[in-house]
Amino acid sequence: MSAVWSVALAAVRRRRLQSAILAVVVLCSTVAIVVALGLLEASSWPFDRTFAEQRGAHVVATFDRAAVPDALLTRTAGRPGVEAAAGPFGQKALTVADTRQSLPPGPLTVVGRPGPGGPVDRVDLWTGRWAARPGEIVVNRPVEPLFSDLVGATVRTREGMTFTIVGLASSVSRTAEAWVTPAQMRTMNPTATQMLYRFTEAGDPRAATASVTAGLSPSGVQSYLTVKQDVSRTASAYLPFLVGFGLLGLLVAVLIVANVVGGAVVAGQRHIGVLKSLGFTPDQVMAVYLVMVLLPGSAGCLVGTGLGALISQPLLHRVFAGTGASIGLGVGWWAYLAALVGVPAVVVLAALVPASRAHRLSAAESIRAGGGRRSGRGQAIQHLLSGTPLPRSVSLGLGLPFARPGRSALTLAAIVLGVAATTLATGLFGTMTAYGDTAQRVGHVHSVVHVGRPDQIRPKLDDAAIEALLRAQPGVRHVTADAWIDVRLLGHTSRIKAQFLRGDAATRGDVVVAGRYISGPGEVAAPSAFLRRFGLRVGDRLTLALGDARTQATIVGEVMDAANDLVIASWPTLTALDPGRSATQYEVRLAPDADVETFHAAVKAAEPGLYPRTKSQVDRNSVAVIGAASFITLLLGAVASLGVFNTVVLNTRERRRDLAMLKSIGMTPRQVTLMTVTSMAALGVLGGLVGVPVGIASHRVVVLAMMEAAGLSAPAILLDVWHVAALAALVVAGVAIAVLGAFLPARSAAALTIAEALRTE
Questions:
Q1: Is beta strand 220-223 parallel, antiparallel or unpaired with respect to 566-570?
Q2: CA-to-CA distance for 168 and 171, rounded, in angstroms?
Q3: Helix 45-53 crosses helix 224-267 at what angle (to 10 degrees)?
Q4: Nearest 5°: CA angle at 124, between 119 and 127?
Q5: d(CA 285, CA 558)
Q6: Which has the higher per-residue pLDDT, 289 or 541?
Q7: Percent of the chain beyond pLDDT 90?
Q8: Is the distance from CB of 133 to CB of 97 less than 8 angstroms?
Q9: pLDDT value for 373
Q10: Which residues contact 79 (CB under 8 A, 6 or more apart)?
Q11: Phi/psi of residue 457, each to 5°?
């Protein structure tokens, strides 16, 4: 075995260029695979681990306290299918006052609970202590040091209650936004009762809840699957394109490995014969070639795993920012092990077929084949091309790929995948740009005018006068008054955002993917992610609550938006909840020739209590996807070019005698370069023509998967992003990949002297 290692190490040193190419290719592929595996784990397993540690609730059920006595709820804990239960706990919805201190204003679901432990939902009290006396409250916040300053702060509610925050806790089940003592809750006259259940079989939590609570009619049921999907949906949206690029990179690596080993076997046939003559068995000869690719492949895999670990950490924290779940972010050891073992295994498998050729050759056949010059299989094609008006260097170049059809096919496949990756990235750029423009309503809203907060200058004008002032400014086309208010969706513990609109709401640029836009009282439109989160659809009715006020509304439309906690409602719906509420901001659309800064200056001069801002034109998620896709595409494009580079190096080394003969009859270095580059440019044209349709098909699959994972519906504007000019440029990308990869070895071949070429024979 030591002899095999010695010969393989010598081959790696002798073929330093091919070994380096192979290492870089495997490195790039490993980076994409580690990042994809890390996101795959983070989208599921950390939640499951935390859920198990905290004995999370499979279902959080709420009941009308006046209709369902606590005694009946206590009995449900012993019903078949219930593994454990906690409660009943009193529940009350309060409204935090807008004091600009501690908690943001809006609804706050408070539960009376004696402590953080128990058989279900063992809350992680990560700082401070549990509430023990009246006037103390524990707030649900993710484990983040920046929230620590909340301990000791005062919370005032619009109901006239005042609390001191004594602790911060995190519930993976999101059972409440805050907790007080049961005695405190009794003084608050709770309107609902909460029960937490863990089931022996949690495949369908809602069906299990219906069985356990038969006859009790819960007013709300929150499944742990909904929480899990909410936590992981951002990461899941990244997975399709990362996995797609990872697979493309792995395929390119396989093709290049096969090309490298195949070229080494062809070029080293005399060496194979010598090894067998010295007593190497066929298995040992094949092992030499496998080890020859395994060594640089393993080195590239090792470095790629390290780089993948560095890249994955900030990406994980970015995609999980703001989820509110105390999950342990990080790539598990299994992902690194899978990359360290799986990628080299793929490299070896890719090398098996060409290496088996070395296994089959006899010693005599190998020495005889290595010593004589083989007639080129592309001579017939070159002879046909010689009758065309093409320059001779071009016609010779066009015939070169036919001399080694297997090698050319592998190179062509690498170019196809490189073009497909470029096409996919271009499509993602168009899709995410269209999504970002829609999310930021580019072209529809030019300025957002905010009303001064309590800690700023307050406007002297009232709501109606402010809207009239804005409409009177030169260049103003449309004005929409907005009121952003946190409300509760009856039957659920978490708060949601409601955007109430008045004025020219139809001009805001919201994209409706199903149903229609809001047009009257009692109507709301909701993003696709919101509907999926709460199991709703167009036509359903829901109840919005603000304090003790309630109002029902009908979902008339599904809009394209990533938020899963937002509804868009008409102004009369707000009037039913809070008749005296004013707008918090105004969205303004200007005429095409109007200047935004001039408008801002005029508004500020007319009313100092208004704070106009230019509407943001950048969507952070779009930038993240575009950046990641561009980076990986550059890697894959470079890898495909390296594959072409390797092919040209092998071809020129095999054809040194032919190059010497051509130079001896008058071919100039420039013509040699043109001939060599043309041979690959022809493959580039074909690769572009094939790779573009492959990339378009991949784009559609990836975008639909991303939208599905994010809980969004994909309208036509996100899929139909292709233009004729862009597609033509993408075909040229195949030529660019081929030319870039071929240029340097072509120049090297052109610089080769006749004497040097013949001396190598």
A1: unpaired
A2: 10
A3: 140
A4: 145
A5: 64
A6: 541
A7: 9
A8: no
A9: 46
A10: 211, 212
A11: -70, 125
Residue 166, both tokens? 């004594």
Q: Which amino acid is at 420?
A: A
Q: What is the pTM of this model?
A: 0.65
- Please check the confidence at residue 124 and state whether its pLDDT lies above 80: yes
Q: 555 or 307: which carries more pLDDT confidence?
A: 555
Owner of token pair 């001896």? 664
- The answer for residues whose C-beta is within 8 angstroms of residue 74's C-beta and 6 or more apart is 88
Of 678, 689, 668, nearest to 648 (Cα)?
678
Identity at 541, one-letter amino acid code: R
SS3 state at 49: helix
CB atoms within 10 A of CB 342: 15
Longest pairwise C-alpha distance within the chain: 105
From CA 285, how far away is CA 260, in angstroms rounded?
16
More confident residue, 194 or 494: 194
Bridge partners for 680 per DSSP = none
Cα-Cα-Cα-Cα dihedral of 743, 747, 750, 753, to 10°?
-150
Distance of CA 423 to the CA centre of its chain: 18
Tell me if 210 sits within 8 A of 218, measured CB to CB: no
Which contiguous run of DSSP H or E holds residue 586? strand 585-590
- At residue 179, does pLDDT exceed 90? yes
Give the C-alpha separation, 138 to 155, whole Å. Answer: 11
Of the listed ranges 37-46, 238-247, 428-437, 600-609, the least confidently predicted one is: 37-46
Residues with Cβ within 8 Å of 309's Cβ and at least 6 positions away in sequence, in order, are: 34, 331, 336
Handedness of CA 616, 620, 626, 627 (dihedral sign): positive
Ranges of H-type helices in 278-332: 282-319
Q: 97's torsion region: left (phi>0), alpha (psi -120 to 50) or beta?
A: beta
Cβ 236 vs Cβ 43: under 8 Å:
yes
Q: What share of residues in the chain are helix, strand, coil (percent, to 5)?
A: 55, 20, 25
pLDDT in tens, 632-690: 667 666 766 766 776 666 666 666 666 666 666 677 777 777 777 787 788 888 888 88
286 in Cβ contact with 358 (< 8 Å): yes
What is the bridge-based pairing of β-strands 178-180 and 106-112?
parallel
DSSP-assigned states of every residue in 68-129: S-HHHHHHGGGSTTEEEEEEEEEEEEEEE---SSSSPSEEEEEEE-S-S-SSS---EEEEE-
What is the tens place of the pLDDT at every residue in 456-504? 778 888 888 988 999 999 989 999 998 888 888 876 766 788 889 988 8
Per DSSP, the three-state class of 305 is helix
Q: Which two tokens stand for residue 67?
A: 């209709």
Count the neighbouring beta carbons within 10 Å of the beta carbon of residue 528: 23
In a 13 Å sphere around the CA of 39, the CA atoms on its Cβ side amount to 27
